[in-house]
Amino acid sequence: MNQPLAGFAPAPVTARMENHGSHMLKVALQTGNDLLARVGSMVAYEGFIQYEPNPPAVRQIARDWATGEGAPLMKCSGDGLLYLADYGADVVVINLNGDGISVNATNLLAFDAHLSWGVERVKGLAKFAGQGLWNTRISGQGWVALTSRGTPIVVDCGGGEDETYVDPDALVAWSPNLKVKGKRSFKAQSLIGRGSGEAYQMAFSGQGIVVVQPSEDSTDRLRVRG
């Protein structure tokens, strides 16, 4: 019975965060090194791990989530191995080395609790869609796990003069030092009668990366925020 399943057994721990397959995150928890994770993302754990939904650190920032940009978080603490997933989405693990990343909250799975984070408005887009776009910015020294609806691509903007254009609904994350501006365009569907015509794109320039998933989110990220 065990022999056919041997290839799916957990591998030895090599890092604080790592993939177990492409759709699951494995986190090595230790006392004093807590984790913030999306509520409902726990699929299994070993050891002694406690969960606290909506901890004080999250409540302090929750007022910014009135914009619609945010995800319910829980604090995970203790000693053991924690496995997280989000409805079979691909998991992308990033080790921040004193830098930062700006993340679409619907793609945020987990991050080290000691990292600096908050909800911020993306500059340069307000004139395109009401109050614009809001993202979760995370920075410092530690680990972040993102999800992607399919295997993502990571585009290196390279610091050149050329801009990288992304559909906002396919955007996962980007380097916060990149310059961002909006651009109006027409989706190809409008040419064959399926779309509504005018659409928006986000243009990135500067030195940094942009993470793009091969699937458009079902929600319009550039809708007017009430």
List the helices and strands and how they pair.
Layout: E1 17-19, E2 25-29, E3 35-38, E4 42-53, H1 56-62, E5 73-84, E6 90-103, E7 108-112, E8 116-122, E9 133-148, E10 153-156, E11 164-166, E12 171-174, E13 179-186, E14 198-205, E15 209-212
Antiparallel strand pairs: 1-2, 2-5, 3-5, 3-7, 4-5, 6-9, 6-12, 7-9, 8-9, 10-15, 11-14, 12-15, 13-14
Protein name: AIM24 family protein
InterPro entries: AIM24, AIM24_sf, Trp_RNA-bd_attenuator-like_dom
Organism: Streptomyces achromogenes
Notable characteristics:
mainly beta, 226 residues, 15 strands
What report would you give on this structure?
By secondary structure, the protein is mostly beta strands. The protein contains one helix and 15 strands; from the N terminus they run E-E-E-E-H-E-E-E-E-E-E-E-E-E-E-E. The chain has one helix spanning 56-62, and strands spanning 17-19, 25-29, 35-38, 42-53, 73-84, 90-103, 108-112, 116-122, 133-148, 153-156, 164-166, 171-174, 179-186, 198-205, 209-212. Strands 1, 2, 3, 4, 5, 6, 7, 8, 9, 10, 12 and 15 form a twelve-stranded antiparallel beta sheet that branches. A three-stranded antiparallel beta sheet has the order 11-14-13, with no helix packed on it. Strand 1 (17-19) and strand 2 (25-29) form a beta hairpin. The longest helix has 7 residues, at 56-62.
